[in-house]
Specification:
By secondary structure, this protein is mainly beta. The protein has helices at about 5-20, 125; strands at about 25-35, 35-40, 45-50, 60, 65, 80-85, 105-110, 115, 120, 135-140, 160, 165-169. The chain has one domain (about 25-169): Immunoglobulin-like (Sandwich).
Length: about 170
Amino acid sequence: MSARRVHWVLTAGLLLLFAGRASAADIYFIASLDKAECKKGERPNLTLKLENKGAQAIWVNSRGYVGSSSMAPKERDAYLTVISPSGKALECKYTYPAGYPKSDYFYRLESGKSVPTERGVNLESYYDFDETGVYKITAHYENVFGPEIALDVFREPIQSDTLELKIVE
């Protein structure tokens, strides 16, 4: 193969490899609470969405299955860090493995658009909010799926801003 052809093949390969790929700086994982304060025993809900602030469209896994941080990334799409008012990290009660997502969950996220995850998160189902005071909650997105169905899906870990949830008597 001539040097000119090798140069052309390498250049084209690099362009295909990096064209249209979003970085973690372009994709935002946004978490929001349905209320900032609730009584013990109430069921606060968390909504998650992915937002593309980059110039290129990117494929994302919008399933958003939340599991424990101790689970392997292939068993969940996201996890939460919840810090109690006393500073203790809470353990997630729900650790059912998610399995492979359906192809319907993969979404081409256009520039400037957002997509909500498949379902919200009822925080009482995942964590015990036994103390009164302010809890700090951060959502982490860590998709590992896509290549098995021949999609170049965004797979960098990202996290939301930290939210505060106040639990009162």
